Amino acid sequence: MAFEQAVSFSSTSLRSLITFPQNPNFIPKFKLPSSTTLSSKATTHRSFNLNLKVRCSNSITNGTYPKPTEIQWNKDLCNSVNLIGFVANPVEIKHLPSGKVVAWTRLSVKKNATQMSWIHLTFWDELAHVASQHVQQGQQIHVSGRLVTDTVDSVEGKQHTYYKVVAQQLNFIHRSKKVSNAGNYSAGGSVVELWQAFFANPGEWWDNRKNKVMLTIFVE
Asked: What CA–CA distance (Å, rounded) separates 101 from 110?
């Protein structure tokens, strides 16, 4: 009886501890050495072989992931983009003979402390009036719209293609009071949070100190 309980316990322990490769068709076989013996008080010797067959789940071993959700085609989603940047030029507005109104400017999107990307923005009709009256150079804004291409003929007769965003939504960005443009922080700001922000995106920070002490260490 003790022998049967020991065999049952060993089989259960092996099933809970064994890990298998990711091949779903792999059928492992485990065989204990024939020299393995169990003894009782009567010094009775018995040997046994243990074979296990296990199949792994295909959904786990193959690394399958859920299929993306299928949505209806929507014109407003075609080439839709969201941008946050600073207004680089004053907004210009023009009334067309057709009665439509168009306004335009450029948005500077900072990649890091030294690199900028310039995106042309176009506003139409009511949004053109809003941008012309409220958007000023240097303000930080959020623009949602569609990415389109324009082709312009140069003086040399060559065609140049550039990208622009036709704005459909315009918002101003609320600036946090914890960190100012000069890199200073208010009394309520956390120094730990500032260091965490620095290490998360070190390329967005730069040294604004004018009077820096240069320290050189010589090691002998």
From this structure: 29
* Residues 145-157: tens digit of each pLDDT: 999 988 888 888 8
> Which is more confidently placed, 49 or 158?
158
Percent of the chain clearing pLDDT 90 (strictly above): 33
Mean pLDDT of the chain: 72
Instruction: Please tell me the pTM assigned to this model.
Output: 0.50
User: Which CATH code is given to the segment(s) 75-172?
Assistant: 2.40.50.140
User: Cα–Cα distance between 11 and 28 in angstroms, integer?
Assistant: 14
Contacts of 104 (CB under 8 A, 6+ apart): 91, 92, 120, 121, 122, 123
Q: Which amino acid, residue 38?
A: L
The residue written with tokens 């990649």 in the block is 111
Percent of the chain with pLDDT over 70: 51
Closest CA to 83 of 191, 171, 174, 212: 171
Cβ–Cβ < 8 Å for 158, 181: no
Q: What is the DSSP string of 110-131?
A: ESSSS-EEEEEEEEEHHHHHHH
What DSSP letter does each residue of 71-91 carry, written as one string?
----GGGTTEEEEEEEE-S--
Alpha-carbon distance 30 to 52, whole Å?
A: 6
What is the full DSSP assignment across 154-169? Answer: -TTS-EEEEEEEEEEE
Per-domain residue ranges of the chain: 1-65, 75-172
Quick one: CA torsion of 101, 105, 107, 113, rounded to 10 degrees? -170
